[in-house]
Fold these 3 entries.
Entry 1:
Amino acid sequence: MRRQIDKSVVINRVKRTPAVIFIRGILPFVILFLIMCITFLVGVWNVKEIEYDESKLSNISTVQLDSYLSEFVGKNIFTVNPDDVKSVLINNNKYIKDVYIKKVLPSKLSITINEFLPLYVGYSSDRCILFSDTGSLILELCTNCEEKCIVNDETKGKVYIKSTSVLESEDKLIYFNEISKVQKILSEFGYFIIEININNGIAEFTDEEGKIFVFDLSNGLDTQLARMYAIGGKINEDIMKFSRLDLRFKRPVMDIK
């Protein structure tokens, strides 16, 4: 009996030593660290799946996105930089406006993409170019292809712009702000533009019914817009039928049908 008591006392004394107390204190963390090391080694935290919000995709396929992001599959999810993923996507596809990335542990990337809305197709300098609703260049569809540019599947339902001079500069639609202002005020009076012809800054806007509105985009546009605003209501009120309205002059010139 005495020998058992002495053994118990020794064990208790050992348990109270600083070294044992320290080891007991850090043991859970050591175990957790070892488990984490093992999971890293066997690839538990490697990216195995990339998920997309397909409801947001109109002009881009998940197959394309997978091909852009193949380099990130198999990488440790903690080392994947969302900014790098975003950069790869935007640099590879001009339809992509913005990207939101969420890491879903242990091994999935959840990606939501906002696309540019293609709205304008421009033809100038023998180039057919698709622009977004913000005036950003999306892509060049073809060259030396005016007829194809008009009937291309990707251009259907877009505003067609033809110009005698260059339409694009630094990946932006030239005269975009001016064109937007004109479209906005015309739409307020029920005129929805489908085609624009620009020659040395003079633009003819053609609506769905074939009516033509003429503006000088390079000089005094705000004054011309004010004229349109002043007479637009009267035109609709009097149900005036016309084929062409030129807003460049103090007294707008109207061709009556």
Note: The mean pLDDT is 87.
Entry 2:
Amino acid sequence: MKIKIALICSENISEARGLSVKLQNAMEVGEMRTVDQTTEKLLSLTDKIHSLSMSEENWHRLIRQLRDIDGHFKSDYIIDKLHFDEIRVAGLAVSYADIVSMIDYALKNESVILQLPYEEDDNDV
């Protein structure tokens, strides 16, 4: 499994937040068709130019490091400005330079970041 990290521009934030709640609810009750449809809608709101993928292992390492700083940190689908500073403070710029670069861009453009797990294709590197 990989984690898709992508920007969501300011005009799509409200819709993305609603979809993330819908996705979470569908996941909790196991409505896989709704999960798939909502995931596709969320991905359609992202800025394809400003996106990257990371391994699930690296993502979990990042989340652990963030929780060392803030024990209440929740890894929701939408990461907003409130958590951007935590990521920077965690000293993660060296290990996660791409994410820090994306955070810088998000701050300048009033964006948020979507983090969404997805299954790897056999062709993924």
Note: The mean pLDDT is 84.
Entry 3:
Amino acid sequence: MEKYEFPDYTHLAKPNARYAMIGNIHGFFFNSQGVPLVTVGPHWTFFAGLNCFIFFLALIFIFVISPSVSNLNTVIGTVVFGFLMTNYLLAGLSNPGIPKSRVPDEGDLDPVDSEFQENYCKVCDVLMEEGTKHCEDCGVCIEELDHHCPWTSKCVGKGNLSYFYGFLLGILFTFIYIVVTLGLKTKYEHQ
């Protein structure tokens, strides 16, 4: 898998800015190239709520339920919940793949050409490459848009897709861990 290269965002925020709106997405802590280090989407309440739920579930299992099973189970629980939370935070806070604004060069398609009209987003002022789509919820174009996910608070695209898949895998591992831990706890209580 090739590494995602962030585009130039200097048209959206000054380099080293602390905050700027990018469509409906909140961008925080821009680096010297104008790339937001943290982005939060318009559905941030879902993101915050699910973060709290996972965190409190992790605390209950790691500090209350797992110690009654075994120390190894507590360590496994810490790793599983850590993997889940890390991927969820990265999926929800990283740049989903917002393309840089680019006015077409003279060598590009003619502005009256139908192919140009199909590939140009007037809202974002972006000449969209293949796979880039505009999201009405986020108010921006997203490179390699997979879907808009309110649970991560924004779109899942080129910049955060691998973290989203890690989050889904983390949900599976967490579910298996919870079922096995509760089964072992019940078994030990009835012995």
Note: Residues 44-189 form one domain.
